[in-house]
Amino acid sequence: MAEGSLAGSRSPIIVTDSTCDLPADAWERYNIRRAPLKILFGEESYRSDLDMDLYQFAERMARGDVHPTSSQPTVPDFKALYESLAGAPILSIHLSAGLSGTVNAARQAAQALPDQDITVHDSGTISAALGLQVLTAARAAAAGYSTAQIVPLLEQTHTAGGLLFILDDLTPLVRGGRIGTVQYHVAQALHIKPLITVSKSGETAGTYVPAGRVRRLDKAVDAFVEQIVKEVGEGQKLRVHIVYGTDPTPTLADRLSEKLRQHFDCVHLERSLAGPILAVHTGTVAFDIGYAAGDWPV
Q: How far apart are alpha carbons 104 and 107 in whole angstroms?
C-alpha cells in the first residue's frame, strides 16, 4: 500500500488528511500535519476541521438551501504542504483510494518532488480506523522509528482490526453514490439501519460493504461489541477509538465505551467528535469505531 521516493533512517513527520479522526490532543502532541478536504455549500468553501467543525456544519445544514459536497486536496495543495516540511522525511497516510482520490493526489505531489523523502501510504480505511494507524505511526516516529520500520506497523494494525459504523439516515450515502438506491429503499421499507465497514480484501477492498443490520440506532452498541468479540476474542487486549456525531450519539459512544471495558482489556480507549467532512456523506447523526487487536507495537 505504500510507495516512497527515497529510503531514509530518520524519523518522519506524519501527514494525514481531514478524514482521519484522532483524540483532540494528538495533533499537537505528535506534530501531525493535516491536508484538509473541503466542504462546499454551493460557492461557499470551508476547510474541514479548520474553518468548520461538526456543530457548525449542522447549523449550516439546517438552512436547507443547498446540499453540501466535498472536495479532496489537490496536487498543488499537497505539494505546498510537503515543501513546507522540506528537510525531514515525510510519511503521508490517507483514506482508502476506494473512497477518495486523496491518496492519488498525494502520490502525484510526492512524485513531483523527487528531492524530498516522501512515502505515501494508503491506509485502506477511514475515520477512527485511519486514526489508529496514524496514531501508531506517530508513536513510532516519536520513539525514533524510520518510515521503513513504521509502514509494516501500519499494515499490521490494519490487518488486526477494522472499522464499524452506523448512521441514522442513509440518504447522504445514496446522494454521494456510496450505496445503491435499491439497498436504500429496502432498508427504508424494513426500517433497517445497516452496519457498515470498509472491506479489507478482494474486489471490494477499500470500499464500503455491509457488516450487519439493526432496527434502531442504539442497538448498534451491542452489535459492534458482538462483532469485535467474534473477530478478536473475549478478554483480549484491544486498541479502540470511538468517533461520535450529534445527539444522541455522544451518549451511545459512552455506552459503547463501558461495554468494551466489560469485554476487553482496552489498552487504548478514546472518544472524539467526528470531523464535518464525513458528515457530508453520513449525516451528523452517526458514529463509528476503529479497533485493532493487541497492544501498541511501540
A: 5
